[in-house]
Write a structure and sequence with these properties.
Order of helices and strands of chain B: HHHEEEHEEEEEEEEEEEEEEEEHHH
Mean pLDDT of chain A: 82
Number of domains of chain B: 1
Helix content of chain B: 10-25%
Low-confidence stretches of chain B: none
Distance between the termini of chain B: 50 Å
Number of helices of chain B: 7
Largest sheet of chain A: 10 strands, mixed
Distance between the termini of chain A: 36 Å
Strand order of the largest sheet of chain B: 2-1-5-7-9-11-13-15-17-19
Number of strands of chain A: 24
Helix content of chain A: 10-25%
Largest sheet of chain B: 10 strands, mixed
Oligomer: heterodimer
Strand order of the largest sheet of chain A: 4-3-7-9-12-14-17-20-22-24
Amino acid sequence: MDTREKDIENLKDYKYGFTTDIENIKAPKGLNENVIKFISNIKKEPQWMLDFRLKAFERLKLLKEPNWQKPKYPKIDYQDLYYYSAPKSLKDKPKSLDELDPKLLETYKKLGIPLQEQARLNGIAVDAVFDSVSVATTFKGELTKYGIIFCSMSEAIQKHPDLVKKYLGTVIPVTDHFFATLNSAVFTDGSFVYIPEGVKCPMELSTYFRINASETGQFERTLIIADKGSYVSYLEGCTAPMRDENQLHAANVELIALDDAEIKYSTVQNWYPGDENGKGGIYNFVTKRGLCKGKNSKISWTQVETGSAITWKYPSCILKGDNSIGEFYSIAITNNHQKADTGTKMIHLGKNTKSKIISKGISAGFSDMTYRGLVDINSKAKNSSNYTQCDSLLMGNKCGAHTVPYIKNKNLDSNIAHEATTSKISEEQLHYCQQRGLNPEEAVGLIVNGFCKEVLQQLPMEFAVEAQKLVGISLEGSVG
Amino acid sequence: MNEQLQSDFDKIIKTFKISEKQIQFKKSFLKKFIENGFPNRKQEDWKFLDISKIIQKNIGNLSFFNDYSLPNKIDPSIFVDDLKHNKIIFINGRIEKIDFSYEDQDQIEISDEIGTNITFNYKNSLIDLNNAFTNKVFKILIKKNYSLKKPLIIYHSTNNKIKSKNLNLSLNFELEENSCLRLIDYFIDNTEKNFENILYNFNLKKYSILKNYKLDKFRNNNLKYFFNNIEQDDNSISETFILSAGSDYFKNEVNCNLNGEYSSAFINGVFSLKENQQHEIRSTINHLVENTKSYQLIKSVLGKNSKSAYQGRIFVNSKAQKTDGYQLSKAILLDETSEFNAKPELEIYADDVKCSHGSASGSLNENSIFYLMSRGLSYQQSKELLINGFLLDVVEKITDPEIKNLIKNIIGLKE
């Protein structure tokens, strides 16, 4: 074991904080038309893709960074970032996993992500994104049998341009807010999923995001299309090395569910949160939006947010099709100096649409947590209903927990119910657990897991176990 | 607009008999207002009611000048009959009468003060406007251990001499230790297209009790803005009831600072809106010390094309352990065109607190209507009975029996 690895062992609180020494190709620093052309060129993109990016860039020039959010951050110098970084060995894309740089494989092994097919026992198809590019996608062969397309975004642009052209930017248009438009202009890679009509995807699909290079922003774009009557469950995980600087992660995720289709999207977000004093960490400014386009479609978001210095995202559902359903389950945990402003938007446009929001926020240390959500029932969305529950748990009096729901009801046949509570772990519960032989930390872990149970239940099995552990780790040292 | 403001301001300064220092003071507020202008929907607090646009669309040329030198005739028919009370009468923004004939005169002090510094922090250009243009700011002081025998009714009245005017009123109240004031704001208008901008500042000392009832019942086409700032010391209680039904546009704002331990604040509101009305209540309760309590209940009944909004905010300081805060807003939508907006906000920095909020909106329960109709009531009667019960819930929260009955009569609620 070399010294660096020993160091990693010592860093108990964030075990994914190592970097991989690997040669990178980077785009020139800064944001301008040439950089965008560089990205497009290196990925050998067709003209329409470049036009899409340039259109977004034109629009970006007119936009200002939003500043209404609760967690404030120092101004980001967008000219001081690298917008493209890729391991050199990937320049000519390896044809199979055997040709992949062993260093990369080792990185993913360390992260516990099975890239080699011998790990097929896990039964999860993985697309691994390293800095700006997708390095490997597993289980391709088996998925192809079902007609499922699961590949990196760059590959999809080359091989399935019709699908990409048809759906890209339909949920998050290039004319959206600042960070989404920035992503449209400079996105580098991401995952593309297409589930054909009537197919129930036989395994969990998963993407693993890793930021490695310094001074880079990661801008990935994910597009999932579930055709009529299909079903897919998709998982997303993220980590980054420990650095003193703040790194920007501004991804766009678009989901489209056609008639009778269902998409389940789960995230376990564990970007580097910064050290105890709030130095460093990832700015996680992500735009996630799902469109229930067809009748009886369903989109369900589940997120466990434990990492990032600042999390600022609102996975949303646009319920356009009649009888469509939107769900949002969230656990957000902030400790030390972490800040989170997260929640959801449920926009009811179709008749008989239903949405459910369960949000659990836990803040400890000096952290700040905000639930911000919108429920908007349009005048045409007859017979729609929404149920929202957001609970917050506070540990200590140096942290904050806030709830900012926006409720708009424009339809008389529709019902909205909203509940929120804020409390702390009661002394009685702690006492009870300790009496039965648990130490205070274990007791808190147990109570918190009970508090989060409703959301953890929604996660696929393998993830649920990991998430449960993560919840425990994130709160370590916050009791007492 | 800005030229109009400046020239109206110059005219008004000429008619006021005030010192140079006070003029400078007013000028500084005018300058601030001109910088910021009327609030619009781009500002978070004004998201649901865009005053700037309403003024543009419905009032047009707003004039800020009012000749306060001539008295207006008081029409005694506007007075509330079934309750003996003290009176302050505003007509067209001018104080015509102050009558405390039921009280010990040496227990109440009334002084007029222009240019007192605003003691609370605010980010609100309408308060600047108010400070720049109010002609007289009265301060009413209730002395130690004195409870007013009869309620005080403030009549906010306008007559048909004015149109498209901005009227500004400002009052200061101080309740000394262990004193009690019951205050009713009674709106009665015979005008249209005016913009009334009212600012109250309350200072509640230890053990004092304030009960403030705002009754906007009679249909009129004016735009109104009412801002209450309440500072509360130890063990003081404030109770605010808002009936928001008469004006075309009305925004009530209550900012309550619980500065003393065991102080509590209650806000109850009823929106009963018909065609094209847009009303809003925005409340901010700041729990700043330990053991404070707040309770809010807001109910809306919304007719055709009407819109109501409730923005409630509970703020809990990190020192304010053992806070108890509660918000509940409910709405019944009666028509396809009615709209309810809510933003119940919690901002909490202390861990040993009990804070919760709830919000529900929807249509009248068909099952309940069916139940009543099966017992012989008509559809219309059943509907009315259900709405009656829905609103009665809020009115029952009023702690003063005399005033509770008065309000029930005014609204037309049956028990």
